[in-house]
Amino acid sequence: MPARITWRRELLAAGFAAGEVRQQVRVGALVSVRRGAYLTGALPPDPELRHVILVRAALSDLAADAVVSHASAAVVLGLPLWNVPLGHVHVTRCRRSGARRSSGAHVHAAPLEPDEIVEVDGLRLTSPARTVVDLARWLPFEQAVVAADGALRLELVTRAGLAEAVERAARRSGSPAARRVVAFADERSESPGESRSRVALQNAGLPRPVLQWEVHGASASSAGRGTSWTTSIPWPSGSCVRSGPRNPPRSTCGDLAARRLAATMHDGLRRRMRRTTDATTPPDGRSRQGAPGRRYAAGINPLGSSTYLRAAPWSNSW
Known about the structure:
Layout (H helix, E strand, L loop, with lengths): L4 E3 H6 L4 H10 L3 E4 L2 E3 L7 H13 L7 E2 L1 H8 L11 E5 L6 E2 L3 E5 L7 E4 L2 E4 L1 H11 L2 H13 L5 H10 L6 H10 L7 H12 L9 E4 L3 H4 L4 E4 L1 E3 L4 E4 L6 H17 L4 E5 L19 E2 L10 E5 L7
Parallel strand pairs: 5-7
Antiparallel strand pairs: 1-3, 2-3, 4-5, 6-7, 8-9, 10-11, 12-13, 13-16, 14-15, 14-16
Helix pairs in contact: 4-5, 5-6, 5-7, 5-8, 6-8, 6-9, 7-8
């Protein structure tokens, strides 16, 4: 039997005594979602699915004109989120004042146009473009970029739609931050990790890379996957590439990357490479702790989760 939400008032109306309800909670037949709301089944392990349940349970206690918004709308829409708290249900009411935050809900007060409201699975939500801009006004830059990149990548929004949503929010708090996020967003970021890497590179003062740059190898046998492949975060003008593994298992990623590197070198690009253990480590030869990065010779590096390739003559110095 699929899990569903039931309310205390429904149980009491069905003839259950208050003590029986408490007993059902103790034995695990009912799981308390919030005060007065129970789940007839186990909570799912996925935090996003748990938040959707929390949203549905909270709406019965909120005003009828409340529209699911911010992080809650992002979860229902399927936007990628990174390091965003999901302990509160976020809703927006179309009014000038009355914003409040309780133990389980955060009610925002802001203008809402009819075309900024959509319905998904019976829930009234802010539209994807409005949701991204609300997140960009509310969240730190890095977290907001992850959501904006994801919305563009999933084709839930367009650049024109985001630009219009930013203009509508021009007089609201956080609108300058939202403008910066929308300007920085890029649909070519294929994952939250790539989005975070782009932010880290900008914070390090490095040039903006050209995402998903196609590199051509000399032959199918040397490249390992045809005669071309794409790199995640390259600087073609500076011959510097950040590449991460895709579908192959970790045990084969090193061999594949080494073959790709060999093909690139065969075409006249001479590379040196180092391994990094974190997506936010800048390609400056040092980790976040300041220790010098390990250096490898081409063809023998067991290239791990992320590799930087930088054009350089073959010498002992980096």
